[in-house]
Amino acid sequence: MNDATRGAGDRKGGWRRLAVAVNRWFWRRPNGFAKEHGWEIDRSAWGGRTYRDPRFEQRKKEILESPPQDEPVTEPPPRKFSPGDGFPRKHPKIARAHGPAAVMGLAWRWRSEAALAGTVTLLVWQGVAWQGPVAALLLAGAVLAGGAIPAVRRAAGRLVVRHRFQGLCLRTSMRTPEGRLPLVIRTQSIPGGTAIVIWCRSGMSPELFEDYIPEIRVACFVKEVTLHRHPHWAHLLTIELRRA
Questions:
Q1: CA diameter of the chain
Q2: Which of 218, 146, 161 is nearest to 193 (CA)?
Q3: What pTM was estimated for this model as a whole?
Q4: Which residues, including other chains, have CB under 8 Å from residue 2's CB and lie 6 or more apart?
Q5: pLDDT at 8
Q6: At what angle do helices 150-171 and 100-109 cross, to 10 degrees?
Q7: Which residues pair with 42 in a beta bridge?
């Protein structure tokens, strides 16, 4: 019949054509861009698109099929010694400081030894006055026996390392322009060595001590020297000296 209404199949075909038209209109520009550059277009069931450049697949295939090649390893040029007051740099020679401040610094550096020598002398004098020479011999034996205690040996080792480090500062340019040495705040025993905490005075920097790592290694009888900067205070520096 001519006046018959459209069936469900006609309505379904109309919705499908409308969906196809909307889909083409929505992906018109991306599809055109992909076709212009030679990309592959994959259409999903829900109207989405996936774009892929076939050149990546070709390059991936070439990499997988080609045999691995060892890249040449370039070694850095060897560091050479340069004449002067350091390695491998030339720092100006600095004269030693003189005056009351230098004398006070010398007394402070030898404070532990001076206190120990004064205490031993006083004990020997009192022992001789009270018990005679036998007391002095007993005291000397006690001092020698104390050297076998590990804590005493570690303390003596820290004193030796501190004096060796400060002596190196006197012989090199690890000083301020006025000749003042860095202040050793603390020495502490660590596994396999000693750690020194120093206060860098005005005119010093951690880079100055990094330049003298070979000299520090020789002067302190160690194999490895590591410098650690304080996370908050730029003037504090920790030097780890490890024997092995």
A1: 146
A2: 161
A3: 0.54
A4: none
A5: 53
A6: 150
A7: 50
User: SS3 for 53?
Assistant: coil
pLDDT tens track for 117-144? 787 777 777 766 666 666 667 676 776 6
The C-alpha atoms of residue 184 and residue 199 are separated, in whole angstroms, by: 6
DSSP state of 202: B
Scanning 132-220, the segments in alpha helix (DSSP H) are 133-146, 150-171, 206-211, 213-219
Q: Which residues of the chain have pLDDT under 50?
A: 1-4, 78-88
Listed by start position, the domains of the chain span: 28-59, 100-242
Distance of alpha carbon 181 from alpha carbon 96, whole angstroms: 9
- DSSP H helical segments within the chain, as ranges? 8-26, 28-36, 54-65, 100-109, 111-131, 133-146, 150-171, 206-211, 213-219
Q: How far apart are the first and last CA of the chain?
A: 106
Q: What pairs with residue 51 in β-bridges?
A: 41
